[in-house]
Amino acid sequence: MPGDGEEGLRQRSNLDGLRRDTQTEGDRGLRRQGCPNASLDFQECAKSCTDKPCLVACQKQSFCGPDLDLHLRHPSAADWGDLLYDCYFSNRTPAWDDLGTLDDDPRLDRDDTDGGGPENINIDKPVAGHIYRVGVHYFTDHGFGPAEAKVRLFYYGQFVKEFQKSLNHWDFWEVATIDKDGTIVEVGTVNQKPGEAY
Fold it and tell me: What is the pLDDT, as a whole number, of residue 112?
C-alpha cells in the first residue's frame, strides 16, 4: 500500500480510480468529500483510510456514505418498487419472461448499505423488444447530506455510457433506458420518493 503524505495520497487515489474503472455492469460508484477511500469495503477502508472520521466510522462498522440503491425495471413493471418487475434490494433475483431459463433474469450482486458501493445488476441475455429502465434511489443519508451518484452502463461486457447526478435524501433518479441492442437513451428526471423503501 502506498505510504503517507502527499505522494501516498496521490498513489491511493490512482489505485482507487483503477478499482472503479474495472467494475462491472450497472456500477454505481459513490465518492464522499473527505474520504479518499469511500469505494472500499469496511476492512479495506479501515486499513487504508487516512481521513479520521471515515476511519472511525469504518472501524465501528458504521457508514462511509449514504445508501443509494440501484434499480433495473422490466417494461411490464407498474412502477419503481414493483415486486415482480423491478430488480433492486428487495427483489434481487426476479424471474422475468421465460421461466425455463435464468438467462433473461436480472440479478443484483449485493445491496450496498454502507455508502462504499458499487451495486451491480446484470442480465445475461436481454429480451428482444424490451426497453429496460435504470434508476437510483437515495434511500438513506446516514447524516452525510447530498451525494454524487454515478451509473456506468455496459453492453455484453463493454462499457457504453456513464451518467452522474447530485442527489438529495429520498431523490429517485430515472437514469436511462437500454434495450437488447444496447441502445441507451438518457431520461435524467429526479423525483422525491420520501419514506418509500425502494
Answer: 82
